[in-house]
TrEMBL record:
SUPFAM superfamilies: Thiamin diphosphate-binding fold (THDP-binding). Gene3D superfamilies: 3.40.50.970. Pfam families: E1_dh. Residues 3-294 form the Dehydrogenase E1 component domain. Signal peptide: none annotated. It comes from the Bacteria. Its cofactor is thiamine diphosphate. GO terms for molecular function: pyruvate dehydrogenase (acetyl-transferring) activity. This is Thiamine pyrophosphate-dependent dehydrogenase E1 component subunit alpha. The keyword Ubl conjugation does not apply. InterPro entries: DH_E1, PDH_E1_Alpha_Subunit, THDP-binding. The keyword Oxidoreductase applies. One of its GO terms (biological process) is pyruvate decarboxylation to acetyl-CoA.
Length: 307
């Protein structure tokens, strides 16, 4: 979680230099869901993400220099510098892609789950999406198809209460999102998305069930994004969030919560500083590698584009 947080804080700090020329959506405040779900997955399990993808990518084992290189549009990026923040992929890590169009990776994840079932490979497919995606018809079509074929599929809804600047209760009727999934006939579970231990427990049980052929499952985790919808800044000045709401949620920071628990259990305090120093050095090296890398070349494009 700290690695994701420090990486995104560095992105936010450097974004104004105008060297990263792609939109970027930060998941600061939501790290526990990324890490807790990925903790329960195997390397060859599939993960599909959305526009807020950095945390999912890193948690699943994605390459940090390749992530930063992609933001800088450099040839060492995970998409060769031609995709940007919202188009990350690393098949070797089982991270099968992020796409900015809301809910568009969910049917892709279902397709991967169907392929895994047909091959009897034992793999599980996970789709991460926000509460806003639940308003797209393809989510419900995907749920229906996954349920019809009993696919090894886990739907993970990161409910951070907002779709861009519009609060959940202004977009959806007053009922729990997971309740609608249950009405489809799907097994559901919920947990505090800022408590990484709770996420690990919930995800571990769901993924084990899916792997045993008892899927699909729908998980809803409550959380909150700290920064603006798109960009490196804070946007409380826009007035779309109730006064004090951000500060209240920051009191439930998933990283601070786990840090406090570890300290209370006797973890050496030097551990935390050593971890931060190590990650800071790794992040700095990734940024330097991106700055030093060459831009993508036309000759590096797939052959089909040359036609």
């Amino acid at each position: 979680m700290l690695r994701i947080r420090l990486t995104e804080e560095a992105i936010a700090a450097r974004y104004g230099e105008q060297e990263m020329r792609c939109p970027t959506h930060l998941c600061i405040g939501q790290e526990a869901i990324c890490v807790g779900v990925a903790h329960a997955l195997k390397q060859d399990d599939y993960v599909f993400s959305n526009h807020r993808a950095h945390g999912h990518y890193l948690a699943k084992g994605g390459n940090l220099p390749a992530l930063i290189g992609e933001l800088y549009g450099k040839g060492n990026g995970c998409c060769g510098g031609m995709g940007g923040s919202m188009h990350l992929i690393d098949p070797e890590a089982g991270f099968m892609g992020a796409v900015p169009i809301v809910a568009s990776t969910i049917p892709l994840a279902v397709g991967a789950a169907w392929a895994a079932q047909l091959k009897n490979s034992g793999q599980v497919s996970v789709a991460f999406f926000g509460d806003g995606a639940f308003e797209e018809g393809v989510v419900h079509e995907s749920l229906n198809f996954a349920l019809l074929h009993h696919l090894p599929m886990v739907f993970v809804c990161e409910n951070n209460l907002y779709s861009v600047y519009t609060r959940l209760d202004q977009r959806q009727p007053e009922r729990p999102i997971h309740g609608v999934a249950a009405a489809h006939g799907c097994q559901v579970a919920t947990a505090d998305g800022n408590d990484v231990a709770a996420v690990v427990d919930t995800a571990t049980q769901a993924i084990a069930q899916a792997r045993q052929g008892k899927g699909p499952l729908f998980l809803e985790f409550s959380t909150y994004r700290w920064r603006e919808h798109c960009g490196p800044n804070y946007d409380d000045d826009l007035g779309y969030r109730p006064q004090g709401e951000l500060q209240d949620w920051q009191q439930h920071c998933p990283i601070q919560r786990l840090t406090d628990q570890l300290k209370a259990s006797g973890t050496d305090r030097a551990f935390f500083q050593e971890a931060k120093d190590s990650i800071d050095a790794e992040v700095a090296a990734a940024f330097q590698a991106a700055l030093d890398a060459a831009p993508p070349r036309y000759d590096d494009l797939p052959g089909l584009l040359h036609g």
